[in-house]
Amino acid sequence: MTLSMGVSGGISEETAGTGEVIFPEGFVWGTATASYQIEGAANEDGRGPSIWDTFSRTPGKVFAGHTGDVACDHYHRYRDDVAMMADLGVQAYRFSMAWPRIQPDGSGPVNPRGLDFYDRLVDELHGHGITPLVTLYHWDLPQALEDRGGWTSRETAERFAEYAAVAYGRLGDRIATWTTLNEPWCSSFLGYGAGVHAPGRTDPGAAFAAVHHLLLGHGLAVAELRAAGAAQVGITLNLAPISGDDPEAVAHIDGLQNRIFLDPVLRGEYPADVVERARRFTDWSFVRDGDLDIIGAPIDVLGVNYYSPTAVRLRAGQPANPVHPGSEGIAFVQGDEEKTAMGWSVKPSGLTELLTRVSRDYPGTPLIITENGAAFDDVLADGRVADERRIAFLDGHFRAAHAAIAAGADLRGYFVWSLMDNFEWAEGYAKRFGLVHVDYASQRRTPKDSALWYREVIRRNGLQA
Ligand SMILES: OC[C@@H]1[C@@H](O)[C@H](O)[C@@H](O)c2[nH]c(CCc3ccccc3)c[n+]21
């Protein structure tokens, strides 16, 4: 079953907020994880160091000095984790491959034991009837490449395409859907601009160069995957609806958050307003003739990660937000909506707004929600986690996704972030996004109430009244 399966079947009468909601026949329900966040075994079987191994060891960068050295020990526990997914009725599983397992130095020699792990994982998934969806890059760049400029260097884009070909060569016969990057916005603006993610650089000009080379890597990898016969290729972008009274402020942030990625990938061009505003930080000389044709090569599916909307307003004297270069005078504001443990506003209607906007402005590309979920302060008591807030969060967002489908969005599937609690980047293990609770001392997994609820949603292909 590939995710490009045409959806058929009627849409039940939309009843906002309550009432029965049934998704189209063939809609795919899944869960998502990422290599550095769950695998552990950081120094095992030939894996090389990544920028997150380096960053998490840099004092002050990650909560309490947490690292991904052990994480959920998924590298050793994957069989039980896959069996747990099957028990939860999960139909598809989005995971990422660790480039440093497959090419420890990011180029040249391939580490067969690294490929062997994903071989075993994919066979385990198929053995349980779970469809794999792979992300080739979910932030764990081999450190050796960062030592040579990382994503600010064109060479990294070229090495990424070679890595994609190596991964496809071993697993292309068993993985139908290949997404290249997870959230180039994070890799570039958090990693090279604000410095709050690996590699921890704080240089807006470097961030724009990283944007381009990440996108170029995507395009070069798509060409390799197509040449090798991949059934479905795509990319995952974290996107958000941007609201505010000042059109210029909204356009500025919408440009940096959304259009700087959507336009190249789906239209083969950078948005002119973003290019102009960025000239304070870069001369864009890293863009070469033909690059945008490579980046804009057609894809089969766009992964959308949505968590929370963004609201902005003008505020005199407001310093620039380091994540958004050039955002002087623009304040990021939050309404009085409920907040998650990350401090993010809970606004399901933002998902409907986002999906309908993408469908309207970038028609013709099927969408899948590759991440949506929430961290709450879960409590394990008597072998149970009564995470009612997560159930309410997901219920609301599933209804919002259904409303987008009813409005014409070509949405094919939904992957809840995350299968299990895991290493939440700069927050370490302090934030829990999982449908399944992980006790890191014992590595015991406990499906939360939300996991049991999700099992019923999947069985019903929708929500009860
Ligand atoms: O923060 C929850 C998840 C991460 O665990 C995933 O690895 C990552 O793909 C992901 N992206 C987002 C939205 C963008 C974002 C990420 C991290 C920090 C702030 C914003 C949320 N999440």
Automatic annotation (TrEMBL):
Keyword NAD among UniProt keywords: no
Enzyme Commission numbers on file: 3.2.1.21
Source domain of life: Bacteria
Pfam families, A to Z: Glyco_hydro_1
UniProt xrefs under SUPFAM superfamilies: (Trans)glycosidases
Reaction(s) catalysed (UniProt annotation): Hydrolysis of terminal, non-reducing beta-D-glucosyl residues with release of beta-D-glucose
Family stated for the protein in its record: Belongs to the glycosyl hydrolase 1 family.
Name recorded for this polypeptide: Beta-glucosidase
